[in-house]
Design a protein that fits this description.
The complex is a heterodimer of chains A (111) and B (116). Chain A has 111 residues and is an all-beta fold. Chain A is built from no helices and 11 strands. In chain B, a hairpin with a 4-residue loop joins strand 7 and strand 8. Chain B is globular, with a radius of gyration of 13 Å. The chains are: A mainly beta (111), B mainly beta (116).
Chain lengths: 111, 116
């Protein structure tokens, strides 16, 4: 199985300041079709997960442009350019390149 | 608008069974891969199972293989998860999600508690 490792697991941030979360996979996430199926999800307190970023760097519909994703192969990063209060929650990376799909442990973003 | 509404959770004894449902609206279930993902209380996310659009392709996490069965009823546009031989470690909030490579929609979840 592909192991997804996120760092840090907890991130105190300041409103208006940038934040960054890293995700490393134990194997390359490049699919045989040439795409890399690495997504980022946000889970606000008491809410279900919500898709933010798919295929490394594509923002999902309605996601603010302060969120961005980057990376390749086995190393990926989610960046928030200026943290807002509504960004508090837990962020997960997820790979859907191969079964079983796997998630990172989650990174708690705290103001 | 895509909506996923899970139901069927509850309290069950170890060794018992439950069937979860996920009613889909705003899209046709049989056009998409659909998955179940669970989250134990205070823990992270764990992918459980997926079913192909045709319904003839399924895949399971090792932790549930042989005990859980994913299926769907296209006439009802509803996804199911039959859960047998339940264990305490199956206690979790169960979400259904739409999409294979890109999990773009998630339901609110239904809580399953396995305890004597």
């Amino acid at each position: 199985d592909v192991v997804m490792t996120q760092t840090p697991l907890s991130s105190p941030v300041t409103l208006g300041q940038p934040a960054s979360i890293s995700c490393r996979s134990s194997q390359s996430l490049v699919h045989s079709d040439g795409n890399t199926y690495l997504s980022w999800l946000q889970q606000r307190p008491g809410q279900p997960p919500r898709l933010l970023i798919y295929k490394i760097s594509n923002r999902f519909s309605g996601v603010p442009d302060r969120f961005s994703g980057s990376g390749a192969g086995t190393d990926f990063t989610l960046k928030i350019s200026r943290v807002e209060a509504e960004d508090v929650g837990v962020y997960y990376c997820m790979q859907t390149t191969q079964f079983p799909y796997t998630f990172g442990q989650g990174t708690k973003l705290e103001i | 608008e895509v909506q996923l509404l899970e139901s069927g959770g509850g309290l069950e004894q170890p060794g018992g069974s439950l069937r979860l449902s996920c009613a889909a609206s705003g899209f046709t279930l049989s056009d998409y891969f659909m998955s179940w993902v669970r989250q134990a209380p205070g823990k992270g996310l764990e992918w459980v199972s997926v079913i192909s659009p045709s319904g003839d392709g399924t895949y399971y996490a090792d932790s549930v293989k042989g005990r859980f069965t994913i299926s769907r009823d296209t006439s009802r546009n509803t996804l199911y998860l039959q859960m047998n031989s339940l264990r305490a470690e199956d206690t979790a909030l169960y979400y259904c999600t739409k999409g294979k490579m890109v999990p773009d929609s998630w339901g609110q979840g239904t809580l399953v508690t396995v305890s004597s």
